[in-house]
Amino acid sequence: MEKLDMSTYPVESIRNFSIIAHVDHGKSTLADRLLEITGTISKTDHNKQVLDKLQVERERGITVKAQSASLFYNHEGMNYLLNLIDTPGIQAQTVANFYLAFEAQLSIIPVINKIDLKNADPERVEKQIEKLFDIPTDECIRISAKQGTNVEKVLQKVIEKIPPPQCNTADPLKALVFDSTFDHYRGVIANIALFGGEIAKGQKIVSAHTKKRYEVNEVGILTPNEQPTHKLYAGQVGYLIAGMKEVTEAQIGDTLFLYKQPVEPLPGFKSAKPMVFAGMYPIDQTEYNNLKSALERLTLNDSSVTVHRDSSLALGAGWRLGFLGLLHMEVFNQRLEQEYNMSVILTAPTVPYKAVLSSAKLIKEHGKDQITIINPAQFPDKFSVSEYLEPTVLGTIVTPHEYIGKIITLCQDRRAVQKDMLYIDENRVMLKYLFPLNEIVVDFYDALKSLSSGYASFDYEDAGYQSADLIKMDILLNGNPVEELATIIHNDKAYAAGKLLCERLKETIPRQLFEIAIQAAIGKKIIARETFKSGSDKYGGDITRRMKLLKRQAEGKRLMRKIGNVEVPRDAFIRVLKRETDK
Ligand SMILES: Nc1nc2c(ncn2[C@@H]2O[C@H](COP(=O)(O)OP(=O)(O)OP(=O)(O)O)[C@@H](O)[C@H]2O)c(=O)[nH]1
Q1: CATH 2.40.30.10 domain residues, the chain
Q2: What is the pTM of this model?
Q3: Domain range 11-161, CATH class
Q4: Which residues make beta-bridge pairs with 276?
Q5: Of 44, 436, 478, 570, which sits most exposed with the smallest number of CB within 10 A?
Q6: Pocket probe mutation, ligand 1, options 29, 65, 118, 324, max atoms within 8 Å of Cβ
C-alpha cells in the first residue's frame, strides 16, 4: 500500500473532535456521513456504519468501542485534517458528559439530528437546549444524518469553533496511547495521539509505563482502517505497530517517547469507574487458561472493564469483573462468545456496596474500618458492621408531561427521592431523582421506556454513597445455596425479590425425578419457597419420546450445573436475573 505523506498537515490544519449523544441518536450514522463527505469512504459503499465494526455492534446496533478516523477536508482553499473519535454509546451519560466537556472548556457544537422525521420539532428542541444548557438557539445545527442534510455545516463548525491542538513537531516525541487492539497476525496495534515530535518506522521508543524498549515497525492513520504513512507529526492521531506481543504492553494512558529523548509522561486518563460487578467462571475448569487469555485480549480492547481474580467453592477459579453497566456486561459476555468462542458462568450482578466495620477483628483483618463489597460472598453480617452504604446516582429524566404520574410511581418504587422537577416547555418536564444505583442497573431504562412509549430519556451521574439497610439473600435448591444467585439487597425489597426469584427458577429449571424445594433465605431464615413436584409422569407412556429426551438431556449435560442433586441449565441463572426485560 502506498504510504501517505502527513507532513502537509501542520498543527494549524488539525482539529480533534468527538460526537457525544445518547444511544440511538445517530452518532454512527453521522460519523458515516462525515466519512462520505470527506471521501474517506465512498457513497456507494453499502457497508453502513463503517465505524461500528464488531459483530455484536452490528447485531445490536450500538457502539461498544470507540473508533477513530482521520478525515481530509478542503474548506475555503485550506486542507484540514479532522480526527473524529466515535465515542461508545453504552452509557446514558450525555448530560454528565456535556458538563465534563463544559468544565474542561472544550468547544461544544450543538447538533439536532433526525429533522427528517415527520414529528421532528427542532424549534422546541432548540428551546429546551437553551433552557437546559444555556446554549443560544441560533447556535444549533439542524441535520438529518440519514439524508445528509446540513452535515457539511457540522464540519465547517468543527473547523471554525475548535482550536487546533497546542503542540510542536520540533519538540521531543510524546505519544499518548489512547486505545489499543490485538491483531492475531500483527500483534498489538496501539492507537496514539502525538502531543509533540514525530514518529516513523525504525525509531527506538520506550514505554513510560513498562520502561520496555521497541523499534517502530509501522505507523499510519485510521481511515478508519489502518493506512500506513511515512511519519506521524505533532497533533496527529493514528496507530503504531512496534513488536508489542503481550496485551499488557500497550496500556491505555501510557506515554511513548524516543529512547534518546526521555520526556515527562502525560497524565494519562482517569479510568472509568465500574458500576456493576459480577463473577465470571469457566464452565469447565480445564478451560481456565483459555478464558484467561480471552479475557486479557478483550479487556485490552475494552479497558473500562476491571478484572480481579476470584474463586468460589462451588464454581472454582474465576474472576470478579467490573462493568460500566448491565448492558456493558451483556455485550462483553456476548463478545467472549462470538469473538473467542468462550461460554462462561456469570453470577448475579451487584453494585459496589460499602460497610463501616465495628468488629475489631475485621478491622484488623482489612487494615481499615471501611470496606467495599463487590462480591455477595464477602458480605459481612450486621453484627460486625455499624453501617452499610450503597452507591447512588443522580438521574435526569426528560419526558412528555402525560407520563409524569407513571414515572413518579416507578421512581418511588425504586426507592428514589425527588430532587427537582422543571417544565422545560409547555409539555416537557425534567425530573431529577436520587436513585440507589442497584435499583436502576438491571431494568430501569427498559421500564421507563415502556411506560412512556419510548419518549422519556434517562441520564445519570455518580452521586456518592448513602446509608442503607442491606442484607444478603441466598437462593437454595433442596437446601444447597446457588452461588450464582446470592445477592445483596435492601431489606424492604427482600421478600418480594426472593419470591420472584423462586417463581422464576421454578419456571426455568427442567423437571427432575424428585421433588425440589426452591427457597430464598436471609441467613437461616427462609423468606420464600416454591415446591417443584417430581416429573416422573411428564413423558406419559411414550417410551421412544422419553428415550429421545433422555438422550438429548445427556448431550446437554455439559450445559448443566449440578447443585446438590439438582441439575440446572447454565443459562437459567441469566434468564432468572433479567427481570422485566424478558417478560
Ligand atoms: N430518520 C432518521 N433516522 C436516523 C437519522 N440518523 C440516524 N437515524 C437512525 O437512528 C438509529 C440509530 O442510529 P445510530 O447511528 O446507530 O445511533 P448511535 O447514536 O450511533 O447509537 P449507538 O451506537 O447505540 O450509540 C438508526 O436506525 C439510524 O438509521 C436521521 O437523521 N433521521
Answers
A1: 174-258
A2: 0.71
A3: alpha beta
A4: 323
A5: 44
A6: 29
Pocket lining: 116 vs ligand 1, CB cutoff 6 Å: yes
Task: Find out whether the beta carbon of 114 lies less than 6 Å from any atom of ligand 1.
Answer: yes
Q: Which residues of 326-343 are buried (b: 16+ CB within 10 A; e: fewer)?
A: bbbbbbbbbbbeeeeebb
List where CATH 3.30.70.870 sits in the chain. 276-346
Ligand 1 atom nearest to 117, measured from its CA:
1
Grid cell of 223 as nine digits: 481511515
SS (H, E, C) 468-501: CCEEEEEEEECCEECHHHCEEEEHHHHHHHHHHH
Contact between 560 and 568 (Cβ < 8 Å) = yes
Cβ of residue 48 lying under 6 Å from some atom of ligand 1: no
Query: Does the annotation flag 196 for ligand binding?
Result: no
At 24, the amino acid letter reads: D
Instruction: Tell me the fold of 276-346.
Output: Alpha-Beta Plaits (3.30.70)
Any ligand 1 atom below 6 A from CB of 33: no
Quote the ligand 1 centre to 25 CA distance (angstroms).
Answer: 5
CA-63 nearest atom, ligand 1: 23
> By alpha-carbon position, which residue is closest to atom 30 of ligand 1?
114
Going from the Cα of 30 to the center of ligand 1, the distance in angstroms, rounded, reads 8
Is 541 annotated as ligand-binding? no
For ligand 1, the distance from its centroid to the CA atom of residue 146, given in whole angstroms, is 8
The finding on whether 144 has its CB within 6 A of some atom of ligand 1 is yes
What is the homologous superfamily of the domain 174-258 according to CATH? Translation factors (2.40.30.10)
Query: CATH 3.40.50.300 region(s) of the chain?
Result: 11-161
Domain 472-577, second-level architecture = 2-Layer Sandwich (3.30)
Contact present, 498 and 520 (Cβ < 8 Å): yes
21 is in an annotated binding site: yes
Q: Which residues contact 453 (CB under 8 A, 6 or more apart)?
A: 403
Cβ–ligand 1 distance for 63 under 6 Å, the answer yes
Among residues 311, 469, 302, 477, the alpha carbon closest in space to that of 378 is found at: 311
Is 353-468 in CATH node 3.30.70.240? yes
Q: Which atom of ligand 1 is nearest to the CA of 19?
A: 19
Is 146 a pocket residue for ligand 1 (Cβ < 6 Å)? Answer: yes
User: Which helix (H) or strand (E) element contains residue 95?
Assistant: helix 94-103
Residue 28 Cβ contacting ligand 1 at under 6 Å: yes
Residue 115 marked in a binding site: yes
Is residue 47 within 8 A of residue 53, CB to CB? The reply is: no
Q: Mind listing the pLDDT tens digit of every residue in the chain (583 residues)?
A: 678 899 999 999 999 998 888 777 888 889 889 988 887 665 554 445 555 456 666 666 555 555 788 999 999 999 999 999 765 546 556 676 777 777 778 899 999 999 999 999 999 999 988 888 889 999 999 999 999 999 999 999 999 999 999 999 999 999 998 888 778 788 889 999 999 999 999 999 999 988 999 999 999 999 888 899 999 999 999 999 998 987 678 887 899 999 999 999 888 776 667 888 999 998 888 899 999 999 988 887 676 788 999 988 778 899 999 988 887 888 888 888 888 888 788 888 899 999 999 999 999 999 999 999 998 988 999 999 999 999 999 999 989 999 999 999 999 999 999 999 988 888 889 999 999 999 988 778 888 988 988 888 888 888 999 999 999 999 998 898 888 889 999 999 999 989 988 998 888 777 777 788 999 999 999 999 998 877 644 444 556 666 666 666 555 555 667 777 777 776 676 667 664 333 3
